[in-house]
Design a protein that fits this description.
By secondary structure, the chain is an alpha/beta fold. The chain has two domains: about 15-240, TIM Barrel (Alpha-Beta Barrel), CATH 3.20.20; about 245-273, no CATH class. About 40% of the residues lie in helices and about 15% in strands. The protein has helices at about 15-20, 35-45, 55-60, 70-85, 100-115, 130-140, 155, 165-185, 195-205, 225-230, 245-260, and strands at about 25-30, 50, 90, 120, 145-150, 185-190, 210, 220-225. It has an eight-stranded parallel β-barrel, surrounded by seven helices. Helix 4 packs parallel to helix 5. The structure holds 3-methyl-2-oxobutanoic acid. The site of 3-methyl-2-oxobutanoic acid (KIV) has 11 residues, from loops.
Amino acid sequence: MSSYKAEDRRIVTVQRIKEMAERGEKIAMLTAYDYSMAKLIDAAAVDIILVGDSAANVMAGYPTTLPITLNEMIYHASSVVRGVKRALVVVDLPFGTYQGNSKEALCSAIRIMKETSAHAVKLEGGKQVAESVARILSAGIPVMGHLGLTPQSINKFGTYVVRATEEDEAKTLLQDAHILEDAGCFAIVLEKVPALLAKRMAEELTIPVIGIGAGKYVDGQVLVCHDMLGINEEFSPRFLRRYLSLGQEIKNAVLSYVSDVKTCDFPNEKEQY
Ligand code: KIV
């Protein structure tokens, strides 16, 4: 593991994200869904905190991201924003709040910005959401795109396998990336595609490409915090690097607590009034 000392404590803006990519500084992005975790992650100098709709999986226990509602995303996002001093906070527009209707997309994005004080929104898809991207931007709201494996379309694809391994799909993916850039997205998340395709996208675009399972040649990386901290123990795809076994640590701590209570070791004389 390499060592890097974060010294720049300036607030991260959309402009600074673009500048980082321009000067070749990699962008570090992680998800968070609540105040306490966001506060810790922000203090550790992450550049972007994503309030992902993966909250549906890791916070609510749903098998897909589809059930989470706009109100639930707003609850998570406003909790995160209260814990953040430096990072750029981006919030996922949940399934069913922007697809196929740019006016609804704008209304959903405005609700998120107004009710959470987050800094930007993210949505999944290429050509089919370009009109929504432009309309949201017309209200002054920065938009991050999301291509490759787009979990909100799981019922169309049927699996979470690597995307765009065939030439046709790779070509469409690159076209979609250019459409999102032209529509005004400030960055694109690229999920689970071959590293060389991701490299080509990062080279062709002027906006940053932030990968998850998209290899090392892109402008930044994003992971789900519950996955990289080892809280979500069942999920272990090849692209995931686990930095902690927090799930096991938590279970050990709880086992000790239960034992202390059962054996009347807790509380002791000093722990009472
Ligand atoms: O919802 C989410 O956590 C995401 C990341 C996987 C990029 O979209």
